[in-house]
Fold this sequence. Notes:
Layout: E1 6-11, H1 15-23, E2 29-35, E3 39-41, H2 46-50, E4 60-62, H3 63-66, E5 73-77, E6 80-84, E7 89-92, E8 95-98, E9 101-104, E10 108-110, H4 128-147, H5 151-157, E11 159-163, H6 167-183, E12 197-201, H7 213-225, E13 228-231, E14 235-240, E15 243-248, E16 251-256, E17 259-262, E18 266-268, H8 271-279, E19 289-290, E20 296-297, E21 300-305, E22 310-311, H9 324-342, E23 357-362, E24 365-370, E25 373-376, H10 378-391, H11 395-411
Parallel strand pairs: 1-2, 1-9, 2-5, 9-21, 11-12, 11-17, 12-13, 19-22
Antiparallel strand pairs: 3-4, 6-7, 7-8, 10-18, 14-15, 15-16, 20-21, 23-24, 24-25
Helix pairs in contact: 1-9, 4-5
Amino acid sequence: MSAPPHRVVIVGGGFGGLHCAQSLARAAVEVTLVDRRNFHLFQPLLYQVATGALSPANIAAPLRSVLKKQRNTRVLLGEAVGIDAAARRLLLRDGELPYDTLVVATGSHHHYFGHEEWARLAPGLKTIEDATEMRGRIFHAFEAAEREGDPARRSALLTFVVVGGGPTGVELAGALAEIARHTMNHEFRSIDPGSARIILIESGDRILTPYDPKLSEKAVAALAGLGVVVRTGSMVTAVRENGVTVKTTAGEEIIFARTVLWGAGVMASPLGRIVAEATSAEVDRAGRLMVEPDCSIRNHPGIFIIGDLANFSHDGGRPLPGVAQVAMQQGHHVAKLIRARLDGRSLPPFRYRDLGSMATIGKRLAVAEIGSWRLSGTIAWLAWLFIHVLKLIRFESRVLVLVQWAWYYVSWNRSARLITGAQERSDESAGGAR
């Protein structure tokens, strides 16, 4: 009798998990991909859903559809709640799965630095639900302002605070400015959307910290051109229904705003700490598991941690950034390593190849760092468009996104400006209107 196939269980259908599964397409293994959602989400474009430029279906692809031609792979809808490392079993909320090799790629979630109560008041951007909630808040604020008679309350409704000067915060702030100045121009009778204040708050001394300082300066200039106020060296110390408290070297200040959006930090998935307890793995302050040069857990060569869940500090001593290209490269490496082990071969340690970073600010406004090249303006924007369209999983999504972007380019219209599934606002938050 032939030996049973090697069982590879992958937890998480994000960039790392999906790329690992796809890289095992022709391997003599049995792959099971487990995820709480039945779709892969292209997170870099979530902010476009949140700002009405794209619909959720444009950036999501059903996992079964993506992997349907991969005969050695099955997809299971389920939630991992733990592992039995000794018995090599993944524990699900409604069962368990045996494995020979386990790959954990469950990503990260919002981090409010010990103030989880802020989550209700300042939504982050990690899921489709986050994006539609954020979209509802943004467009509801304009609707409420249209019916508000009190100038102070109207001003608060038309003030948007974005916390965090990384790519997510910068892209959100730029998109908000374009909505107010262009998309919704002349659509209201009692308010001028262009008078909306968009404030980007960053605790560090500059936005886009990982980028070249000159690109950070160009991003600030581009945002200023759109009317965005950038506040660096400002730390948010409180988030309330009516705004935020900001601490600077000059003291504390309250910014009255009805809409606060969070892009200031992430924490590794809770499953990471559960896996760490089961394997005695070390965990850093962000909840990431320390991994070996091959992405495995020390003393557990059959358990791999990739993507945002992993602290890989073997390239220069600093952890790799939590970006899609890291997760994808790690997923591919782990798949190659699984194949090599089955063939009795060894592989060199994982080496990350930085393919560059980019952030878009608005129409024909972007910054990009690709190797030794530092790009800004239209050329960086075109590079951003090309790369993000290319990375979308399905051809159908690429076509639909290109059509939406082309229409937006010529008309400024964001066709997905829908307020759906939002809870009713209180009289206070809705400006006295029902």
